[in-house]
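RECORD CONTENTS
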Amino acid sequence: MTLFSKKHCLVLVFILLHLVVTAQVHNQSWKQITESNDENWFASKEAIRVAENVLLYQRIIGGWPKNIQMHLPLSEAERQKFLVLKNDPTDCTIDNGATCQELLFLSKIYKKNPDERYKTAFLKGLDYLLEAQYDNGGWPQFFPLIKGYYSHITYNDDAMVGVLELLKELKNKSSFYSIVPSTEILQKVEKAFNKGIDCILKTQHLQNGVLTSWCAQHDEFSLLPAKARAYELPSLSGKESAKITLLLMSIEKPTQEIIASVEGAVQWFEKTKINGIEVQSMAIGNDKKEDKVVVKSPNAQPLWARFMDLNTNIPFFCDRDGIKKATLAEIGFERRTGYAWYTDEPKEVLKKYAKWKQKLENSASQNAKKKGLIKDEYLITVDQNGHGDFVTIQEAINSAQSFPYQRITIFIKNGIYKEKVKVHSWNPKISLIGESREGTIITYDDYFNKIGLGRNSTFYTYTLLVEGNDFFAKNLTIQNTSGEVGQAVALNVNADRVFFFNCSFLGNQDTLYTSGEGTKNYFSNCYIEGTTDFIFGDATVLFDNCEIHSKKNSFITAASTPQNNPFGYVFKNCKLTAAEGVSQVYLGRPWRIYAKTVFMNCEMGRHIQPQGWENWSKPEAEKTAFYAEYECKGLGFQPLKRVLWSHQLTKKESEKYTPEAILGKDFLSQIEIFKLN
């Protein structure tokens, strides 16, 4: 063989190898290529050729269209076409993995071929994702927005989860992506991720107050389950909810809210799994068509329906007419065979749940042991940044000894703690002390219709619920941020001998609920705001040197004092203020007809109505309720214009309203010790 022929043989071998590699690439899907871990291929000329396509398909706005096999060769005419389309952003999307897949590809090829164009395109794509996020934390299917269901918050086909998983890797600096954004961009990434998780938590569906799962898409305004295509009705999704739950389970140091969300979803998956069936393909005649049928199979792995009723969890199926059917067999052939109506994805959640739960329990135990909290230590520190014993308030409360012999103090460092906090009845003698009143904020946003537990839903809307006796707190802000949406409690106290000092309570209707027949509470140097009946309940409460701020023309108090209680609500040395434009506020109205409310030595702004009190359409309450004032001042104090059935106390009558008489000496002595500490 001559040298010339050897060269030709080598060239021929090279060409053949190139054709084989090219054929292998062309036989793969774009998703398979982006997810490939073959680093040698990403260093190849073939990968660089594909990268040119990826850069070409990217629109100026930063996103990519969907369902394009970007690795396939393009003719010159096709290239010119896509050059023109670069200025058209209308089909940029996160659906079907679009944009996220391209960013993954750019990261992998940049690692082997550090071309700055790849990095620039990656960062532009990341900017696109950050820009596309709604203020509520969700992502639409298309951005810029397209009218119709495309603007819904899109969990469908794991679109939003895909974005959040990308952001999580970046914010955690996991090195999964070879391109590292600037510190400024990473701060935006972390903020976007946290907002996205918050959106997930807010959109989790409640059934009779119980957390379940998610719909494939949620309305971008109300956050409620929403309809997409005609056969995709509002429902609970066995498919999309699985990846959402796995994402929540992947978060290091999950908040109590995230933990509750996962627990609710896992319980729902257990409740809704379908045993003993399989979906099989069945040949039809000789034309190679296949139908899908559900058959009994006792040993089959569990399945879940793609769509389940929002209230009953019963699976349903739909054709393009949008009418629910009970079985897969009832819908037409085209939809029956052209859509995934069942899924086994939740099995991965159930598989990982036990290990996730054990990891949480081990972490809580280790944190509790740091300072001997499990045995002898009575001081616990909460810091959401991880520099304390716990990162959430509820974790700290849950770690506290039940029925302790001495007071347990939980010190909370500055931060916004978005969690629903409960001090259990078996956790008496708990003190919550914030680092600062303005900086230590406990917040949540439940409200009556969101809870949806019937006529008593109000009492479940709390941000902080205190059921443990002898609870003390200072230097905290407790708020319900749901807005003017009806009843929404910030603080719910159902315990005896409860004291709040230098705290703020922010909300609208029903901000502060104090309950428990015979229970006694004390609020000193506090700020309380709201709209309607924002201080209500049946407990005996002394408000001393507090500011009571009305945000709307309405009623301050709605007492439901038991008939034989000598005291109800007593306000001493308080200041009654109002928002601009508020001019017609009543001191109170009787939630129950034996309501007792007294204002003493208080300064009343001009917003207080001359009549002072209202009977809530209960004329009988005018004979049974006790509403009174003593030596108040300000433009709102007009004793001569008060309703005739209210009282102006004499000096002798006022003398019985001492702190000792209202609260008891033992309670007051504990308070003095607490103040000194």
